[in-house]
Write a structure and sequence with these properties.
The chain has a two-stranded antiparallel sheet with strand order 1-2. A hairpin with a 2-residue loop joins strand 1 (80-84) and strand 2. With 432 residues, it is mostly helical. Helix 3 runs parallel beside helix 5 (137-160), helix 4 runs antiparallel to helix 8 (223-249) and helix 10 (287-304) crosses helix 11 (310-333). 55% of the residues are buried. It has helices at residues 14-26, 28-41, 47-73, 107-130, 137-160, 168-172, 184-202, 223-249, 256-282, 287-304, 310-333, 343-362, 365-396, 403-408, 410-415; strands spanning 80-84, 87-92. The protein has one domain (14-410): Ammonium transporter fold.
């Protein structure tokens, strides 16, 4: 499908409203799936803190978005506009404060706000997994507040609320403007670059890189959480992709089944690719990497599921799976990045790939250029902004736990008890 640039949404029928609302009520399963995966990929002595952190971050992100973020995101009918080269550039929203007048807004606008609440909660979870086993709970909540109040709203306005990226089609004839219906950039790549900032500031886990060029394996403690989280996430992703197609592309109901099929194909292709790559490289498939591959396929589908046909969706997933399997190892061994959840590979890299793939498979040269401009804005503007804000935040709320807390585990240090009190937690040889 090729939506018109900044297409005016038709009046939402009762059927479409009910369907979209049901989809958004299922979308939190994506949050639940990512929370389980984050927890399973961490150490057993930090499991309770990890899962509590996921719940707390959703809460903090929701409150911060309500207090500040929703106003800055705004709606397509409002915004701070500057004129350059004879063109209007809508750069920041001017929505109602504290959702004033929300109940009287058009049905589509109400659902769009609900979508954004769920989107910012999911985006805020992504860096928490990357800081596993050493990121303090207070710091995780503080980063979520900053992300939800300031960073996410700005980029969401640019992409979903009629901002300058969405206007690239109208102003410069670049396809339909920047397209990101399911949040490959606005949720996942944004969360992924935020995770990179957290890792840079927090540093690696003690004992992860004992010598230059070497890495100590620190496998996730619960493969059941990880793999079950993948299945739970699938339901939420289907909901996000279909609801996004309705809200941001104004897709008709007849276009939704193929979007659902494409989401499943992208995830399946990515899993098959990661399974194959790890089987060839290690002699046996790696469960955690396969889970990351599945998630990478879902992330890549977030931009393109409602825009492409099934064969390109499968290809997009396969490429995402291959990239994930290889990039995790490159980042760890060549760059010494300690990313327990694989967020940089899964969310940042696959999100960027999904955005580019949407331009390649769903439009001509103009659409691809619009997608690349969106990626450039994310990496060239949002990443430095996030790093600066987090660098300052780290001065007020230190990100990293002290050495003793990391040694005994985040559960005992921050919560006073472990997730598995009847289990013997083996000592970590890196602390001998």
């Amino acid at each position: 499908m090729n939506p018109a640039p900044l297409a005016i949404a038709p009046a939402m029928t009762d059927t479409t409203f009910a369907l979209t609302l049901v989809l958004l009520l299922l979308a939190p399963l994506a949050i639940a799936g990512v929370a389980l995966i984050n927890t399973g990929l961490g150490r057993s002595r930090s499991a309770a803190q990890a899962l509590l952190g996921n719940v707390a971050i959703v809460s903090v992100a929701s409150i911060a978005f309500f207090l500040i973020g929703a106003t800055l995101t705004g709606a397509p009918s409002d915004g701070h506009i500057i004129h350059l080269a004879g063109k209007p550039w809508n750069w920041l929203g001017t929505g109602s404060y504290l959702l004033g007048g929300f109940s009287a807004a058009p049905l589509q606008s109400q659902l769009a706000v609900l979508f954004e609440f769920l989107a910012v909660a999911l985006a805020a979870l992504i860096p928490w997994g990357s800081g596993a086993d050493r990121l303090r709970l207070a710091a995780g909540c503080a980063t979520a507040a900053v992300l939800a109040a300031f960073v996410f709203p700005v980029f969401a306005h640019w992409t979903w609320a009629g901002g300058w990226l969405a206007q690239l089609g109208v102003n410069f004839g670049l396809g339909a403007g920047f397209l990101d219906p399911g949040g490959a950039a606005t949720i996942h790549a944004l969360g992924g670059v935020t995770a990179l900032a957290v890792i840079w500031i927090t540093g690696s886990r003690k004992g992860k890189f004992p010598k230059e060029g070497f890495s100590t394996a620190m496998p996730g403690h619960n493969a059941v959480y990880i793999l079950f989280g993948c299945l739970v996430a699938l339901v939420g992703w289907l909901a996000f992709n279909l609801a996004g197609a309705i809200l941001w592309l104004h897709a008709p109901l007849a276009a939704l089944p193929i979007a659902a099929v494409n989401t499943l194909l992208a995830a399946s292709g990515a899993l098959a690719a990661t399974f194959t790559v790890t089987r060839i490289r290690f002699g046996k498939p790696d469960a955690s990497l396969c889970a990351n591959g599945w998630l990478a396929g879902l992330v890549a589908s977030s931009a393109s599921a409602a825009l492409v046909s099934p064969m390109p969706a499968l290809v997009i997933g396969i490429i995402a799976g291959i990239l994930t399997a290889l990039l995790v190892e490159v980042l760890e061994l060549a760059v010494s990045i300690d990313d327990p959840s694989g967020a940089i590979s899964v969310h940042a890299a696959s999100g960027v790939w999904g955005i580019i793939a949407a331009g390649i498979f769903a439009g001509g040269t103009g659409q691809l250029v619009a997608q690349l401009i969106g990626v450039a804005a994310l990496l060239g503007v949002v990443l430095p902004l996030v790093y600066l804000l987090f660098w300052l935040l780290n001065r007020a709320v230190p990100f990293r736990v002290d050495a003793d807390g990391e040694r005994i585990g985040m559960d005992l240090h921050e919560l006073g008890g472990g997730a598995y009190p009847e289990f013997v937690i083996h000592r970590d040889d890196s602390y001998r």
